[in-house]
Amino acid sequence: MKRFTRTIFATAMVGTAVLAASAANADVKIGFLGGFTGPIESLVPPIFEGAKLAVSQVNEQGGILDGQKLEIVSGDSTCADATAASNAADRMVNSEKVTALVGPLCSGETIAAANNAAIPGGVVIVSPAATSPAITALDDKDLVFRTTSSDAYSGETLAKILKEKGTDNIAITYVNNDYGKGFADALEESFKELGGTVAAKEAHEDGKADYRAEIGSLASSGAEMLVVLAYVDGSGLTIVRQALEGGDFSKFAGGDGMVGDSLVANIGEGKLDGMIATRIGNATGPGTEVFSPLAKAAGLDPNANFGAQAYDAGFLIALAIEKLGKDTREGLNAALREVSSEPGEVILPGEWEKAKKLIAEGKDINYEGAAGSHEFDEAGDVPGNVIEMVVEGKGFKEVAAN
Amino acid sequence: MEDVGLLAAMPINEIVFFINKVVIAGLIIGSVYALAAVGMTLVSGILRFANFAHGDIMTLGAFVAFVLTMLMPGLGAMVGLPTAFVVMPLAMVVTAAVTIFLDKRFYAPLRTVGYKPITLVIASFGVMLMLQGVIRLFFGTAPRQMYVTAKDIYRVPFGGRDIIVTEPQLLLIVFTIVSVVALHLFLTRSRTGKAMRAMSDNADLARISGISTGHVVRTTWIIAGSLAAAAGTLLAMDVSLKPDLSFNLLLPIVAAMIVGGVGQPYGAISGGLLVGFTETLSVFNWAILLRPLKPHLPEWLEIPANLAFVPTEYKLVVPFFILVAVLIWRPHGIFKGRVL
Asked: Which chain regions cross the lipid bilayer (chain B) (predicted)?
């Protein structure tokens, strides 16, 4: 009995000590969601590293708020499984009690996590990789942001380019997922607005051996050009090849998923000359130049897919918390908008100390990130840097930045 | 005078489009169905069960041909034919041997014990899943090309548009005709062929009259396996090789077999072509043939952009409809086959 009491007493003492310590130095906690398992599992670790780099810089340069540490916890949102993504987001919002979230990454899981956990919980989420235009239309109470541009911009740009080249009547075939559908919808809308005709717009399933029936149906619409919004290593290549073989189409265009040299390598040089495509370009700006050496010094690849976007998402959230002056969820979205947009003194990647000082002085700041300047619009989207590509000889060549 | 006007309005372009998309496409897919359904119907007629592993035997045959092609890529250039086609006879032999092995291991024991045909059907499901697993284990799921070099495409100019047939398609059609004729001669002239027909008609009577059942069963598997391998290889040459290549064709093949009459090789061939043509006709966009007539039609009549019976995504329902219709109104099929 005596020993029992002593144990209780000791435990209570230790517990109190721990509590006291954590109260004095409570970490500010943010979450990271990504598909650590699932169809993009190989892409996620470098993205997470990007976000972690931002966090470690904050901690190395004086920490956040009153010298507290910024902590990042991660969860697996699986990319493809909306239920798992909702559960992971729910854990972040309600158990881990994070202040804000970086991610999720895929468009579908982002929508699920936002609707089921983040928006009800009033948590700001900044996705570094979700590109579907559907996220723009989300009823998000101004909580959902992203540091990568929407496919709507690619669709718009592609429509403009096609129209400028004198194409008036197109047929669209797209891979049946969030990427393909979003891109196709955006392209159709913009192309029609510009006065063009979309003679056919049909989805197809990825990974089939034969698309001749689909191509026949598209060709019968009488369109002069086939726009293929699919992946070059999946259905895209087969469709272009079979359409050429069957003499159904001779003019092609594509989205960023089609930009790969394997297209020309498999179909034959010269057969696709003049095929147009768009691609989301690397941002150019002061932030990008500063970021490259920073990332390399930390042992990361500065050009990793969405790595820079994840870094920006993490850094922006930290800036917003600092601006808000406290570790709460309310008001974070407004603070995020303030620190990211003009006017204000420019803050580049890695300049946490400078930013902290300026905020303390009450000055307005404007973060120019590694992946763009991040001037969020009303829907929380950033404008894209879409590049026109054209097939010439062995593969795609850049035409001009738009 | 009016005749001249109509003649000038003849939509040559659109008719060629129709030939390409319906006649040629139907002939190609119909030939694949026919080749596969012949083997399946022979097995069903003689061994009295529907072998659901037949689709994956086609895929297996195609993969055997693929491996042989990769081993001797230069072989085709010497003969002037695609390598995959040159090694196809060897692939047919290997596949036939595999089917005999599968029969020995899985079907024969069940048959000797005297289980009902439905047990064998379920066993064939097991064999099907096993084959699918083995193929994916060794080759993965990525699509592959059977062609070492670029495939030849024959274009016959016809008005403004070309009639287009590719080399594998031509080979497929020729091979189908040759094998149908050969099969006909075999079944009507040779002793084994006659024995097979006898056994298909009445197994007990055939056994009493001294026909060697083992020999007939083996021959049946050889024909079924080798034709399946040929159909799979030729199909893979035409499109591309994937582990689910022929599994997706199983339904149209079963439909072709039942439409033709189970156990009837000629029925399977006509059933295969019938299902093939129905598929291409039902997804064809008829608006394209009506569009040239637009100046002659009253103004209130708008031609819709798409006038297909079935959208292309739902092509696979067509054989289903044929199957159900035949089972309701003509359960014996065109050629009076047995009812499974």
From this structure: 22-47, 59-78, 84-102, 114-139, 170-187, 245-262, 269-288, 308-329
